[in-house]
Amino acid sequence: MPELPEVESLARLLDERLAGRSVGRVYVVAVHALKTYDPPVSALEGRAFGGVRRHGKFLDLRVGELHLVMHLGRAGWVRWSDKLAAVPPRPGKGPLALRVRLGEPDDGAGLEVTEAGSQKHLAVYVVRDPQEVAGVARLGPDPLAEGFTLEVFGGLLEGERRQIKGVLRDQSVLAGIGNAYSDEILHAARMSPFRLAGTLGADEVGRLYEAIGVVLGEAVERARGTALKDLKAEKKSGLRVHGRKGEACPVCGDTIREVSFSDSSLQYCPTCQTGGKVLADRRLSRLLK
């Protein structure tokens, strides 16, 4: 799933590509992905792009006075083409969900939004204000924003009874962190994913806060200048524990372990994070004694 660093890079790359250009035609290929109908997507046509930004994991393309907002879900992505097919796309079983063709004098270039796999989570909105999108409106603070201080972070954890892994992934607490980078942050902070967030001491909160900034900041910098088509591969190459079950921890050499749930999994290093203890591989597990 694209998370904060990848969506940030997407926003920067698209902002550079779309500056000074306008929308020619918009084709909705996967009707289920379109979540709004007023204004219609046709209202984007003929309007100039006014900038691209990120809200958590949401991508926001400003078009005139409107906003084309997208959440890429688990397997969505954006690809750029200097020469799109001349024939309008038809709904089918392929991954293409949305095509935005630029207007003159750039007619032929544009972007396509795709979604692989059978589970469809891609969401596209055309709104007058991004806050009209419920997922955007409920976002917590952005961990890369200047106002995200240690004091702010500590306040978010006060009285929190959930496990820290789930808190980091909760978009209403922090915007943009998902399964992969929460694993990376907890590994960098040397913290068990099952620690109760509200029980963390001041030193632990400080360590976790620092890890958030370092892990996300480094991921954004690694992606800087990377082509759109290579961003996914770049993300995987930079991960130290997530998706690396059975491999050696790059810090201590211990074997990276996994806890699987019904629809996701987490990876961690026992030596670095749980005092050498192995977490039971089941939902709501506790440290094995």
TrEMBL record:
Which GO biological process entries does UniProt record here?
base-excision repair
Q: Which cofactor does it need?
A: Zn(2+)
- Residues forming the FPG-type domain are 240-274
UniProt keyword Ligase present: no
InterPro entries in alphabetical order: FPG_cat, FPG_N, H2TH_FPG, Ribosomal_uS13-like_H2TH, Znf_DNA_glyclase/AP_lyase, Znf_FPG/IleRS
UniProt key word Membrane:
no
Family matches, as Gene3D superfamilies: 1.10.8.50, MutM-like, N-terminal
- GO molecular-function term, one example from the UniProt record: 8-oxo-7,8-dihydroguanine DNA N-glycosylase activity
Keywords of the record: DNA damage, DNA repair, DNA-binding, Glycosidase, Hydrolase, Lyase, Metal-binding, Multifunctional enzyme, Zinc, Zinc-finger
SMART domains according to UniProt: Fapy_DNA_glyco, H2TH
Entry superkingdom:
Bacteria
Catalyzed chemical reaction(s): Hydrolysis of DNA containing ring-opened 7-methylguanine residues, releasing 2,6-diamino-4-hydroxy-5-(N-methyl)formamidopyrimidine
Q: What is the similarity comment for this entry? A: Belongs to the FPG family.
Q: What name is this protein filed under?
A: DNA-formamidopyrimidine glycosylase
Species whose genome carries this gene: Streptomyces auratus AGR0001
